[in-house]
Write a structure and sequence with these properties.
By secondary structure, this protein is an alpha/beta fold. The chain is 36% helix and 25% strand. The structure holds adenosine-5'-triphosphate and magnesium ion (MG).
Amino acid sequence: MTAALELDAVKKSFGGVTAVNGVSLRLEPGRIYGLIGPNGSGKTTLFNCITGVERRDAGRIFFQGERIDGLKPWQIAVKGVGRTFQVTRVFPELSALENLLVVTRGDRAAAERRGRELLAFVKLEQLAGEYAGNLSYGQQKLVEFVRVLMRDPSLVLLDEPAAGVNRTLLNDLLEAVRRLRDEGRTVLLVEHDMKVVMGLCEVVFVLDHGDKIAEGPPGIIQADERVIEAYFGR
Ligand SMILES: Nc1ncnc2c1ncn2[C@@H]1O[C@H](COP(=O)(O)OP(=O)(O)OP(=O)(O)O)[C@@H](O)[C@H]1O
Ligand SMILES: [Mg+2]
């Protein structure tokens, strides 16, 4: 089967800092994967390389078998790669619904229907007309999350979607992520909360100083010596 995403020895440095040091990984379609690692280990940089926000220095990136490294971010997005940002980016002066419409073109009525459906998907339909700036932090994260879905991506990259989200909203989010998988989409999420990782991910990749140091089911990863060392060893 063609991989949803394949990275072959992807490398990215900033001046003297090697943020991603030749990382290879493969995501099968329709599964939820985790990407973990200590602060500064290269997780967000890897997302930026995949989505074209940063240009990788070396290595190859394939989306559904097709090479995407070298494409512009919008080209990669149009192909079906969606992502959220670690620092949430909603427009506070626009309503929740309008925040979803900013990424769409063409049929406005259809986009609105889709937007309302997606807000309902995360139980925010009552807040469609509310300024995003008036929503709680967790609600804003959910708005950003469903905005990614407006373009119907087959691969969804989530950068710490659960951070700072309260328990109720977190459960809505986890349920929504599982539903994405059930719809056949592939999900890769960066997450520090091991409970979330354990509850969601089938396979976890671990980065440390830009190196992939482990890969496997979360239960095994948690007990891996190198992983424990990376998190607590220094
Ligand atoms: N634009 C940039 N310019 C210079 N250095 C950068 C840049 N982006 C990231 N880095 C460096 O690259 C390394 C990896 O950073 P990155 O943000 O990818 O880590 P991370 O795993 O996402 O960390 P966190 O868990 O804190 O979000 C760090 O040393 C960071 O300082
Ligand atoms: Mg990060």
